[in-house]
């Protein structure tokens, strides 16, 4: 699929300075969405398979080794038991996860394990998760990850720039990161759990997109508050406005705390309702998740067999 | 569809809620229901069909209650009343609590049955209607518990006839039955013809919790059943929710009967969007305002008023959103809009839409088509509509939004109030200063800031103008179901001091000309006539101006022209009232003398009436800055402010007796809360009032606050009742006069307070002073202010 990358636009506060997000109204919309839309039976199975293709299957732990990264990659290549795919007539649909997501120093292991599968490697970068390293180190880290074979870079922004409304500095920081990424796609993590208001989340989304982010992403998974539907609503509405302004489609990645199949469906519904079908494909939508896949597999087995499943019946990552 | 195809297209599929248990319930009744009278099912002679509007299939046969059935139901309610009162609020609380529990336990059955019968989406019945129903019974179980201690001065009204609409069948039932039962009343309820089923399931719940027989009676049937209920002599109050047209008929039918009435009628509620609003949230607000329950909502935000600077952007966003709305079977869990309740409603909606198109308004509907096998109507948007358009004025009661722009905040308020209705208003801005500036200026019982169509048992709901009167929910709603115990002490004849038979010296001297008082100036009657005033001994004591309808017209205009008084703070109004009392005190002797001349009082009685008048002014000066509102505990995260507001321009028709004290006792509480008044003083003894304008003149009362028209009481009262621009009317006089007032006031639904020929003792503080007067001089407006940064 060829697509126009977001090259960003010149910094101008006029696009976002008047943004006012009404939290109560946003929460009301987010809360009612699950009651307005649902998918059942074969629709649910199809949507869950789609969700799998949008997962950045992630391991970001201090005790990551070549061994568990290898398992993760194997699971990414073959996320669903073959008999289940057969039962759903989906063996030829090339169901893999959207990417694997690791720390910089696990890229080589991931690359080796993924072989020729074509599954992209995403590396978290710029001093993930806190971002408290020097600007030079951030740029250096991005470059090294790209050299090591990561084709997707998940950067974290400097939250203090958001907290203190230093929007132009934030723009410059993100733009420099984007330049360092080269051909690698950049997902910009706002760490919304550390941004005090929805209005600032929206403004940070705008600045990140204006600076050339390919995706905007909620969280590192390490903040006390993870991705929520209301915060996602705020961010995807910013994506929609940016698209209306520039014609460019920026992707979206909620991350952290998404563990259940039902949650995945809620997010897919949110994307379809607020942005449209284009954002239901891995080129514009990803989940940052580690345990989500396991729950989806169980739900798929339930769909195929009519029996509630057990996690030991599915290969672990 | 194959999984791969869905995987590639990512379409939605059907997601039906099961109707199995609802069908079991219907089958258990052989799909034929009877009348619930005196705790038992009474076989009806005739039945009619109730239909599922999503697919036009017959669901069940519903009984048609005839007049004899209505009689039986009312008599059962009447019989049950005594014991239901006697067991006390605390025992009643247990029953209401049990009902709430039962509703929760069977919540899905209620939700499914409602969606089937009404056509509204299962999401709404499941997530909104039924939880609110349970909440209403819980909340009022609490009020029952507290009645004996917190509301000691009030008692039940008696047998309540309740007629509810089809748009929120069970929710409206709960709004009617819960407060009525809590306050010790018994009820006869008639559900709407289209949607009886959940009320009948509710009847079973009443049986299950062992509710005493006759406390709740449910009689199904058409309008004629309702009419029989309205006109039944043993019904003490009618509570009605429905169309303004029927509301007016009911108001007229029971005028003068002494039956209390609360009417929750139609609306054409404004939805105001200022340029600093969160527009994406506004769009969802619009969805909740006009596409909730297919727009069949009395308080639907059906008139979109948009600040001109953002109108194109907002219309575009709304259209994009409309394209994504899904219309379908009420039982589908993947839709936004269900079925219109019946074909006749679809026809009405479509006729109005066609008129809107003929008028040249720009109409827009989404590109997709509705399902063809049920009563569906697509969401419809009219933009650039002028206020003069029919679709901007008439309640469409369907999924049709009419939009127009405004330039300034002032213009927004004017457009918002440019309607006969006054039920609700939604306003959107991120500026709290603006929001709280506009909210009080809108004639509406409920104002939602940055939200819409949110309800709670703890907050009163009801309208101004032709949207009806009375409140449902909150403490303010309880007053519709109880009455002051003190009313039982009122007498059949006017209460006044004995006449002194001694000869009274009528002063000779310069002929003082009593005039009327309009807009802060003395005014001669338009007619050019005067009439002779005699004392009870037949002696002529002077002449008074003979006011006519033109003087009423002038007085009402003067009252409206006075904006100052209403804008003053309670403290400032109190200062003026104290000043009035002070000036009256300085002229005590003169006012006593007048009473002796006009009424042949003894000196002591005259002095007592003047002294009491001064004291009464003190009372309302005291109340002026204290009769304030509440911050209700509603269930959403918000502050719900229940603010008492002045009714507006009030007519006050004084009794003949106590010419100074009754005059003071009736108009002072009205102005204490910021109303402007047109007062008709005692017809037989008007000089205390005409003397009084000199006191008003010297007490800093802004011109137009108090207007005094002397003359033929009944004729002038009728002019006030007929006047469209009078918002409230108090009448203290005869039974027949009370009837005329109630009947003539129906046309613009002005609030009336009449005495049905029962007389207060004006010297008695308990009977003639206090919050009961203030309550009738005000309306509660609930302002919902969600918060969260």
Main traits of this protein?
heterodimer; A: 317 residues; alpha/beta; eight-stranded parallel β-sheet; 12 helices; B: 789 residues; ten-stranded mixed β-sheet; 42% helix; 19% strand
Tell me about this structure:
The complex is a heterodimer of chains A (317) and B (789). With 317 residues, chain A is α/β, with parallel strands linked by helices. In chain A, helix 2 packs across helix 11, helix 3 (66-77) packs across helix 5 and helix 10 (229-246) packs parallel to helix 11. Chain A has an 8-stranded parallel β-sheet. The two termini of chain A are 29 Å apart. Chain A contains 12 helices and 8 strands. The model of chain A has no long low-confidence stretch (mean pLDDT 97). Chain A has helices at residues 23-36, 41-53, 66-77, 82-87, 107-114, 135-148, 159-163, 167-181, 198-210, 229-246, 261-274, 292-305; strands at residues 55-58, 99-102, 121-124, 152-156, 185-189, 215-217, 251-253, 287-289. By secondary structure, chain B is of the alpha/beta class. In chain B, 42% of the residues lie in helices and 19% in strands. In chain B, strand 24 and strand 25 (638-646) form a beta hairpin. Chain B is globular. The interface between A and B is large, with 38 and 40 residues.
Mind describing the biggest β-sheet of chain A? 8 strands, parallel
Class by SSE composition of chain B: alpha/beta
Number of strands of chain A: 8
Average the pLDDT over all residues of chain B and give the rounded result: 96
By DSSP (H or I, 4+ residues per run), the number of helices of chain A equals: 12
Short description:
The complex is a heterodimer of chains A (317) and B (789). Chain A has helices spanning 23-36, 41-53, 66-77, 82-87, 107-114, 135-148, 159-163, 167-181, 198-210, 229-246, 261-274, 292-305; strands at 55-58, 99-102, 121-124, 152-156, 185-189, 215-217, 251-253, 287-289. Chain A has 317 residues and is an alpha/beta fold.
Present the secondary structure layout.
The complex is a heterodimer of chains A (317) and B (789).
Chain A: H1 23-36, H2 41-53, E1 55-58, H3 66-77, H4 82-87, E2 99-102, H5 107-114, E3 121-124, H6 135-148, E4 152-156, H7 159-163, H8 167-181, E5 185-189, H9 198-210, E6 215-217, H10 229-246, E7 251-253, H11 261-274, E8 287-289, H12 292-305
Parallel strand pairs in A: 1-2, 1-8, 2-3, 3-4, 4-5, 5-6, 6-7
Chain B: H1 3-9, H2 20-28, E1 35-37, E2 40-42, E3 46-52, E4 57-64, H3 67-86, H4 88-105, H5 107-118, H6 122-150, E5 154-156, E6 159-163, H7 169-182, E7 186-190, H8 197-208, E8 216-218, H9 223-231, E9 237-241, H10 244-253, E10 260-264, E11 269-273, H11 279-290, E12 301-307, H12 311-324, H13 343-358, E13 362-364, E14 380-383, H14 390-393, E15 400-406, H15 409-417, E16 424-428, H16 432-438, E17 446-449, E18 468-469, H17 474-478, E19 482-484, E20 516-518, E21 521-523, E22 530-534, E23 540-545, H18 549-561, H19 564-567, H20 570-586, H21 588-599, H22 603-624, E24 630-632, E25 638-646, E26 649-653, H23 661-672, E27 676-680, H24 687-697, E28 706-708, H25 713-722, E29 728-731, H26 735-745, E30 751-754, H27 765-768, H28 771-776, E31 778-786
Parallel strand pairs in B: 6-7, 6-9, 7-8, 9-10, 11-12, 11-16, 12-15, 14-15, 16-17, 17-31, 26-27, 26-29, 27-28, 29-30
Antiparallel strand pairs in B: 1-2, 3-4, 5-19, 10-18, 13-14, 20-21, 22-23, 24-25, 25-31
């Amino acid at each position: 699929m060829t697509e126009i990358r977001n090259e960003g636009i010149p910094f101008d506060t006029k696009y976002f300075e008047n943004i006012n997000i009404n939290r109560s109204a946003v929460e009301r919309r987010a809360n009612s969405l699950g009651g307005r839309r649902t998918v059942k039976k074969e629709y649910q199975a199809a949507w869950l398979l789609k969700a799998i293709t949008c997962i950045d299957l992630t391991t970001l732990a201090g005790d990551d080794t070549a061994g568990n990264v290898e398992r993760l990659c194997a699971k990414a290549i073959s996320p669903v038991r073959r008999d289940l795919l057969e039962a759903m007539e989906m063996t030829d649909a090339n169901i893999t996860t959207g990417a694997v997501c690791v720390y910089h120093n696990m890229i080589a292991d991931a690359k080796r394990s993924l072989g020729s599968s074509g599954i992209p490697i995403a590396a978290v970068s710029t001093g993930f998760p806190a971002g408290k390293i020097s600007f030079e180190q951030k740029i250096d880290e991005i470059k090294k990850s790209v050299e090591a074979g990561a084709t997707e870079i998940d950067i974290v922004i400097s939250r203090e720039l958001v907290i203190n409304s230093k929007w132009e500095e934030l723009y410059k920081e993100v733009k420099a990161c984007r330049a360092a990424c080269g051909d690698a796609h950049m997902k910009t993590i706002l760490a919304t759990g550390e941004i005090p208001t929805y209005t600032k989340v929206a403004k940070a989304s705008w600045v990140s997109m204006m600076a050339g982010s390919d995706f905007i992403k909620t969280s590192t998974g390490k903040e006390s508050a993870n991705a929520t539907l209301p915060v996602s609503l705020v961010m995807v509405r910013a994506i929609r406005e940016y698209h209306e302004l520039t014609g460019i489609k920026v992707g979206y990645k909620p991350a952290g705390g998404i563990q259940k199949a039902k949650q995945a469906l809620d997010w897919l519904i949110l994307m379809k309702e607020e942005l449209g079908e284009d954002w239901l494909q891995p080129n514009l939508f990803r989940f940052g998740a580690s345990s989500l896949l396991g729950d989806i597999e169980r739900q798929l087995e339930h769909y195929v067999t009519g029996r509630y499943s057990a996690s030991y019946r599915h290969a672990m990552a | 569809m194959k999984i791969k195809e869905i995987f590639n297209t990512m379409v939605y599929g059907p997601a039906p809620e099961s109707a199995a248990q609802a069908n079991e319930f219907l089958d258990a009744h052989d799909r034929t229901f009877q009348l619930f009278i005196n705790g038992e099912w009474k076989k009806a002679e005739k039945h009619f069909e109730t239909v599922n509007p999503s697919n036009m299939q017959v669901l069940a046969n519903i009984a048609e209650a005839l007049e004899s059935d209505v009689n039986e139901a009312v008599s059962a309610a009447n019989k049950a009343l005594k014991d239901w009162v006697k067991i006390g609020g605390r025992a009643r609380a247990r029953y209401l609590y049990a009902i709430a529990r039962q509703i929760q336990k069977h919540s899905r059955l209620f939700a499914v049955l409602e969606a089937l019968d009404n056509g509204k989406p299962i999401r709404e019945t499941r997530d909104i209607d039924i939880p609110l129903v349970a909440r209403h019974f819980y909340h009022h179980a609490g009020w029952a518990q507290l009645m004996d201690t917190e509301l000691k001065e009030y008692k039940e009204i008696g047998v309540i006839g309740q007629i509810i609409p089809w748009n929120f069948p069970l929710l409206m039932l709960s709004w009617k039955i819960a407060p009525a039962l809590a306050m010790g009343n018994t009820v006869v309820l008639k559900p709407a013809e289209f949607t009886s089923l959940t009320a009948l399931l509710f009847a079973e719940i009443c049986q299950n919790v062992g509710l005493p027989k006759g406390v709740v009676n449910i009689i199904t049937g058409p309008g004629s059943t309702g009419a029989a209920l309205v006109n039944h002599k043993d019904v003490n109050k009618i509570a009605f929710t429905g169309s303004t047209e029927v509301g007016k008929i009911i108001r007229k039918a029971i005028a003068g009967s002494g039956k209390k009435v609360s009417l929750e009628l139609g609306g054409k509620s404004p939805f105001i969007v200022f340029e600093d609003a969160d527009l994406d949230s506004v769009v969802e607000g619009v969805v909740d305002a006009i596409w909730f329950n297919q727009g069949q909502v009395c308080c639907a935000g059906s008139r979109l008023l948009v600040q001109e600077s953002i109108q194109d952007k907002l219309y575009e966003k709304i259209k994009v959103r409309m394209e994504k709305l899904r219309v379908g079977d009420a039982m589908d869990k993947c839709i936004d809009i269900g079925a219109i309740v019946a074909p006749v409603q679809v026809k009405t909606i479509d006729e109005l839409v066609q008129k809107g198109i003929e008028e040249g308004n720009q109409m827009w509907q989404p590109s997709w088509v509705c399902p063809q096998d049920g009563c569906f109507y697509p969401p419809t948007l009219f933009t650039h509509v002028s206020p003069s358009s029919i679709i901007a004025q008439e309640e469409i009661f369907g999924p049709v939004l009419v939009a127009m722009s405004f330039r300034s905040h002032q213009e927004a308020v004017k457009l918002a109030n440019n309607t006969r209705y006054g039920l609700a208003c939604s306003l959107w801005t991120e500026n709290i200063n603006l929001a709280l500036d506009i909210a009080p200026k809108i004639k509406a019982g409920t104002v939602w800031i940055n939200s819409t169509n949110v309800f709670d048992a703890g907050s009163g709901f009801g309208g101004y103008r032709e949207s009806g009167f009375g409140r449902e929910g909150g403490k303010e709603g309880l007053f519709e179901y109880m009455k002051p115990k003190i009313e039982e002490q009122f007498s059949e004849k006017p209460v006044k001091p004995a006449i002194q038979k001694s000869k009274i010296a009528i002063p000779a001297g310069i002929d003082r000309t009593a005039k009327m008082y309009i807009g802060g100036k003395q005014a001669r009657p338009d007619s050019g006539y005067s009439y002779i005033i005699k004392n009870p001994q037949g002696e002529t004591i002077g002449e008074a101006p003979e006011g006519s309808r033109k003087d009423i017209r002038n007085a009402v205009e003067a009252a409206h022209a006075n904006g100052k008084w209403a804008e003053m703070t309670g403290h400032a109004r109190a200062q003026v009232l104290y000043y009035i009392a002070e000036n009256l005190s300085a002229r005590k002797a003169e006012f006593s003398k007048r009473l002796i001349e006009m009424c042949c009082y003894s000196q002591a009685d005259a002095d007592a009436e003047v002294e009491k008048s001064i004291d009464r002014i003190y009372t309302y000066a005291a109340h002026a800055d204290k009769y304030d509102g509440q911050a209700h505990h509603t269930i959403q995260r918000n502050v719900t402010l229940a603010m008492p507001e002045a009714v507006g321009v009030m007519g006050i028709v004084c009794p003949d007796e106590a010419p100074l004290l009754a005059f003071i006792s009736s108009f002072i509480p009205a102005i204490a809360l910021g109303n402007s008044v047109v007062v008709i003083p005692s017809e037989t003894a008007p000089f205390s009032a005409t003397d009084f304008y000199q006191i008003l003149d010297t007490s800093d009362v802004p011109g137009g606050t108090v207007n005094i028209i002397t003359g033929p009481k009944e004729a002038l009262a009728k002019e006030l009742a007929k006047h469209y621009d009078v918002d409230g009317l108090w009448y203290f006089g005869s039974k027949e006069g009370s009837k005329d007032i109630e009947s003539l006031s129906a046309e613009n639904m002005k609030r009336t307070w009449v005495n049905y020929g029962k007389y207060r003792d004006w010297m008695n503080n308990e009977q003639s002073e206090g919050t009961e007067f203030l309550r009738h001089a005000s309306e509660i407006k609930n302002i919902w202010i969600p918060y969260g940064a």
